[in-house]
Amino acid sequence: MSEQEPVSEQEPVSEQGQDAPKKGFFSELLAPVAGFGVSFRTQFREYATTQYPEEKRPTPPRFHGVHQLNRHPDGLEKCIGCELCAWACPADAIFVEGADNDDTPTEEGGTGRFSPGERYGRVYQINYLRCIFCGLCIEACPTRALTMTNFYELADHSRADLIFEKDKLLAPLQEGMAQPPHPMVSGMEERDYYQGSVDGATEQQRDFVAERERPDDTGQEQPGRDQANRGETKGGGRS
Ligand code: SF4
Ligand code: SF4
């Protein structure tokens, strides 16, 4: 039978808090209000909070906000209704319906065109209940028709109001532009628009628009005028 090792004597366990330093009289007195010191010191520091909506912090230059459909310098729309943006959208937030531009002479009832080239975006919708502001749509756009602004205040009371259509998405007319539909600048082709050869609406285009908007004092319907005002052309009427 082996000899058992003797059990070593253990140190007696000290009582909890026995080694903690004793607080002074004033520390104990001020302890309940010590937290207010933090609040007091913070009052003299610079605010990190932005007082939104009274104050708005500028967004970064490449911020992804609400979309914009851009125009050429003469007012024609850059969108050609190709639907590439809709196909690129991972959230299925874009709906585009293209239509043919109308090059029929005005005397034969032509209404003018909305974009250079063959087609334009007759219906364009972005559903901001779905959009995740990823920017893939603007990368896919071949004409730089679609870009994103830095506007982000999108809250609304109605779900329907968060589906933006062309009336909200199209860039406003700038100085030197004429309200489409109207013909392209005389002698220019579609590629000239993308090469920056057009720098504003011509007299001929302005006359076309003025003629379309002229009040009809004879009571007769002007050829194509009402169609144009509804955003319809011969090749792409509403179905
Ligand atoms: S930003 Fe993204 S989610 Fe929004 S419409 Fe464009 S592709 Fe779709
Ligand atoms: S916005 Fe661009 S990608 Fe989308 S339909 Fe128009 S041209 Fe095509």
What's the short story on this structure?
This protein has a domain at 67-215 and 223-233: Alpha-Beta Plaits (2-Layer Sandwich), CATH 3.30.70.
How would you sum up this structure, described in words?
By secondary structure, this protein is an alpha+beta fold. Helices cover 21% and strands 10% of the residues. The chain has eight helices and five strands, in the order H-H-E-H-E-E-H-E-E-H-H-H-H. Strands 2-3-5 form a three-stranded antiparallel beta sheet. The chain has a two-stranded antiparallel sheet with strand order 1-4. The structure holds iron/sulfur cluster (2 copies). The site of one iron/sulfur cluster has 14 residues, from helix 3.
List the helices and strands and how they pair.
Elements: H1 25-30, H2 35-42, E1 67-69, H3 84-88, E2 94-100, E3 119-127, H4 136-140, E4 146-148, E5 163-164, H5 166-169, H6 190-194, H7 203-213, H8 225-229
Antiparallel strand pairs: 1-4, 2-3, 3-5
The chain binds iron/sulfur cluster (SF4) (2 copies).
List keywords for this structure.
two-stranded antiparallel ribbon; disordered C terminus; binds iron/sulfur cluster; 239 residues; single chain; 3-stranded antiparallel β-sheet; alpha+beta; elongated; Alpha-Beta Plaits
The total count of strands amounts to: 5
Instruction: Characterize the largest beta sheet: strand count, sense, and whether it forms a barrel.
Output: 3 strands, antiparallel
Helix vs. strand class:
alpha+beta
The N- to C-terminal Cα distance equals 106 Å
User: Helices and strands, in N-to-C order?
Assistant: HHEHEEHEEHHHH
Bound molecules: iron/sulfur cluster
Strand content: 5-15%
Low-confidence stretches: 223-239
* Rg value: 34 Å
CATH topology of the domain at 67-215 and 223-233, by name, is: Alpha-Beta Plaits
Averaged pLDDT: 84
| Helix content estimate | 10-25%
Number of helices: 8
- Provide the CATH architecture of the domain at 67-215 and 223-233: 2-Layer Sandwich
Shape: elongated
Read across the widest sheet, the strand sequence of neighbours is 2-3-5
